[in-house]
Design brief:
Layout lengths: L1 H17 L11 H20 L4 H12 L4 H8 L2 H15 L3 H8 L3
Helix pairs in contact: 1-2, 1-3, 2-3, 2-5
Length: 108
């Protein structure tokens, strides 16, 4: 779980940096959409691959958006960058063999 914690911590740091209060309410930072799309796409994939760990992945997902307003998160999730990165990572991970997918999602 250490690698996942480090990755999610770094992802949360990046997301918080681009969603900081300094951003205007109407701005949709491309980097925030890309980061959140990749991270949420990965977490959703791993929930499907290892459903017994779903609660852990959902908790990581909540950590990523913790402290952000629902409006800010919705703005990012509705961005083209989010949708493209989410779709791309889902496609890439979906191409993995079952063994590779389990290894990727169960990295400790």
């Amino acid at each position: 779980m250490k690698k996942i914690s480090i990755v999610s911590g770094f992802g949360a740091f990046l997301l918080l940096a681009v969603l900081s209060p300094a951003q205007t309410a109407t701005a949709t930072p491309t980097s925030a959409g890309t980061v959140l799309g990749v991270l949420e796409g990965t977490l959703n994939f791993c929930i499907k691959v290892t459903p017994q760990s779903a609660s852990k992945y959902k908790a990581l997902g909540q950590l990523l958006i913790n402290g952000q307003s629902a409006k800010a998160i919705a703005l990012v999730r509705n961005s083209d960058a989010y949708e493209k990165s989410f779709a791309q990572i889902t496609k890439q991970l979906g191409a993995l063999s079952t063994t590779q997918a389990l290894a990727a999602c169960n990295t400790h």
